[in-house]
Every structure is written in structure tokens, then in C-alpha cells.
Amino acid sequence: NLFFAGRNISTTHAALSSTRVMATCAILGQAVGTAASIAVQQDCSPRDVYLNHILLLKQTLMDDDCYLPWNTRDVGDISKDALLAASEGDPLPLRNGTDRPVGKTDNGWAGSLGSFVEYRFDQPTQINRCRFVFDSDLERDSCTGHEKYKTLPMLCNRFYNMEPFGFPQTMVKDFDLVYLDEDGEWKLLKQVRNNYQRLCFVKVQVTTKAIRFIPRETWGYEKAHVFAWDVR
């Protein structure tokens, strides 16, 4: 009945080289913290989280953009049952439950600035939340700055006058959400400006038969590239 995360985990000498680093320890901490919250919510022991609530743990972690290989995130019935269309490109990867490139599969939608992606429903549907995963350029190919620090974008200690590592130009900066009202007119629902986060939640309160996402600007890239958009 004890949670722990960090270098005190039990691993072989061969595994320690990768499990001891801060990034891995941080992921362990996220998993343990999430599991602890589930144990409190379900009034159960840590072992019971593993035995009886492992699916909930996995889905909660993936909803928070924790990557679990060979697992697929559940996007919810509203998104799965809706008609998903776009003014250009294939939007279906936006709800496939994989929020990053895997191998040669991109798992994303790309469209011109000002284009749109649309969820359309058979009947008026209550939408409370939109979840986006934007392209943070995990390979860091679009980032400016010193090549030496390409693998260290979060470095806090820098030499004086050192060229900083740049922001991913592929990230969507500005976007709009519009909805179809009762008269069949498109109305502005939300304007998001100066976004800098890969995982972006937008709270909305609307009942509608259709909702659109319209990218307006990126941090430098000529097109918008998005890995996930689902509604709940």
C-alpha cells in the first residue's frame, strides 16, 4: 500500500541508465500522483487501483497527454458518433486516440490557416469541453536556436549571452471555435489567442448541432497541424 516514484524504484542495472533520468522520473511521478487521486476517489488501496481501476488510470493519464505505447485514448461517445468533416485534408486522425506520430503514421490533420474542421450531430447536443493536442514539434525540427541544445529545450541554466533554443513554429497560436445556432447561422463561441500549450482544454457551454475549429495563426509555420480535437 505504498506508492513511490524516482530512483528508488526497483530495476535492473541495465534499466537504471534510462529510468534514473529526470524526464522518466517525472513521468513516474505523474502516474503515481494520478493513481493516488484515483485511490482517494474510489476509497481503495494502491493495489486495488491496479487490480480494479487500471483502465481508468490509463485513460486519465492519456487524457492528460501522457503517452502510453500500444494504448488508445477513448475520445468519448459524442466525438465518436458525430460526423467529422474538414474543408481540406483528412480529419479522421483527430479522433483516433493517438496524439502523436508513431512510426510512419502522422496521426494528425493539416490544413491551411482559415480552414476548418467540423463536428456535426444528428440532434442538438450539449458540449462542455473541447480538448486539443497541437503539434509541439517533438523532433524540434522547426525550432530556432543553438543546435547543441536541441535535445534540451527546457534547460534552465544558460551561459551569459547564450543563444536560447526557440519555440516550435508548428504550434497553433490563435484559433476560433464557432457553433451553429438554432437559426442555422454560425456564431462565435470562443476566441483563443497566444496559445503556447500542446495540450489545450477549452471550456464551452453550448447546445448545438455543429461546432467548428478554425486555426488562425501558428508560431511561424505556414499550416496548422493538429493531433487531436474531441468534444465532450
Written overview of the protein:
Strands 1, 2, 3, 4, 5, 6 and 7 form a seven-stranded antiparallel sheet that branches. The chain contains five helices and seven strands; from the N terminus they run αααααβββββββ. The chain is an alpha+beta fold and 232 residues long. A hairpin with a 5-residue loop joins β4 (172-180) and β5 (186-192). The chain starts with 12 loop residues before the first helix and ends with a strand. The radius of gyration is 20 Å and the shape is globular. The chain has helices at residues 13-19, 22-42, 46-52, 54-63, 77-81; strands at 83-86, 109-112, 117-134, 172-180, 186-192, 199-218, 223-231. It has two domains: 13-63, no CATH class; 77-135 and 170-231, Sandwich (Jelly Rolls). Helices cover 22% and strands 31% of the residues.
Task: Draw up the topology in text.
Layout: H1 13-19, H2 22-42, H3 46-52, H4 54-63, H5 77-81, E1 83-86, E2 109-112, E3 117-134, E4 172-180, E5 186-192, E6 199-218, E7 223-231
Antiparallel strand pairs: 1-3, 2-7, 3-6, 3-7, 4-5, 4-6
Helix pairs in contact: 2-4
In short:
The chain has five helices and seven strands, in the order αααααβββββββ. The chain is of the alpha+beta class and 232 residues long.
Strand content is 25-35%
Question: Which fold name corresponds to the CATH topology of the largest domain?
Answer: Jelly Rolls
Number of strands: 7
**Text of the CATH class of the largest domain:** Mainly Beta
CATH superfamily of the largest domain: Galactose-binding domain-like
Order of helices and strands: HHHHHEEEEEEE
CATH architectural arrangement of the largest domain: Sandwich
Distance between the termini: 34 Å
Could you say which overall geometry the principal axes of the C-alpha atoms support?
A: globular
Q: Which residues form runs of ≥5 with pLDDT under 50?
A: none
- Radius of gyration from the alpha-carbon trace, in angstroms: 20 Å
Q: Specify the biggest β-sheet.
A: 7 strands, antiparallel
**How many helical stretches?**
5
The structure class reads: alpha+beta
- The helix content is 10-25%
pLDDT average, as an integer? 93
Number of domains: 2
